Structures are given as C-alpha cells and as structure tokens.
Amino acid sequence: MRAADLVEPFPTVEIDSNAMDAARLMAEQRLVGVIVMGTDGRPHSVLPGSQLLRMVVPEYIQADPALARVVDEGHADLMCAGLADRRVRDVLPHDKVRPAIVDPDATAMEIAALMAQTHTPLVAVLDGDTYIGAITASGLFRRLLAVT
Questions:
Q1: What secondary structure, in 3-state letters, does 21-90 show?
Q2: Contacts 24+ apart (CB under 8 A), 105-108
C-alpha cells in the first residue's frame, strides 16, 4: 500500500487565518488538529487542538488544574472568545510542530515509521509542491487492519 492509496482529503488552515475559525473547523469536523499552510502554499506546521486549548485556559489554571473547579460555567463558556482576535500564527507553539510530509509513492511502513519517529498522528502528502491530503494514524490503522 502506498500513500496515494491511503491519502484522504484533510482540511487545512492558512497561517493568517483566524484562530477561532481553526477551532470551529476542529470542532465541526472532530479533528485533533489541522495542517497549517504557509504563505508559500506548502504545509508549514501542525496546529494541535491541545495548543488552542492552552491558549484559552488561563495560565494560573494550567499551573494548578484544581482551580478549574472554581471557575463558573458562565466564564467557562466564554473561554474561546479570546481566539477571535488572534491569527493561527499567533497561537502556534513556539517550538512549532513541523508537519511530517511524504510523497504519493511512500509505503505504509515508511509512513508508519515517520509517524512513530516524529510522534505525530498526521502526515501530509505532497505531489511535488501540491498538497493532496493527509494520512492519519487512525486511517492507517483502518487500512492495515482492514477495519471498516
């Protein structure tokens, strides 16, 4: 099995997109993260959903998660409001998650090894400079285990 057989359409966001739009995309499509496209049209990084959550949870609660219990639901419902004023580039981790990239001829073993080596469940597939989609760890397992 080659990457061309495993690739699926996978949404991307532009690096200058609104961070709230990226969060909505993740929520609506039940994604754990998205591929961020650079201004050159190539995958720039991966924005994990956990990073967006890190941007909306106050630092004092991150330092002491027990404090989350004292935040009322009205305030919790407004947590994401701060994303509306930010761009994706503003919320990327400082040590940004580089996207793992393969070409359509990569084998399933090469893809699995790359995922294992880079600790990422998401690999972008490029045909030359053209993004054609991604392979997720769950998609790879589905195909390798023939799970429908």
A1: HHHHHHHHHCCCEEEEECCCCCEEEEEEHHHHHHHHCCHHHHHCHHHHHHCCHHHHHCHHHHHHHCEHHH
A2: 105/2, 105/3, 105/4, 106/2, 106/3, 107/1, 107/2, 107/3, 108/1, 108/2, 108/6, 108/140, 108/143, 108/144
Read off φ and ψ for residue 76, nearest 5 degrees. Answer: -65, -35
Q: Rounded mean pLDDT of 25-36?
A: 93
Using alpha carbons, select from 121, 113, 90, 97 the residue that is nearest to residue 43.
Answer: 97
Q: What is the pLDDT of residue 76?
A: 61
Confidence of residue 105 (pLDDT cuts 50, 70, 90): very high
CA–CA–CA angle 57, 63, 66 (5° rounding): 85
State residue 77 phi and psi, 5-degree precision: -65, -20
- pTM higher than the cut 0.85: no
What pLDDT score does 77 carry?
Answer: 64
- Tell me how far apart the terminal alpha carbons of the chain are, to the nearest angstrom: 17
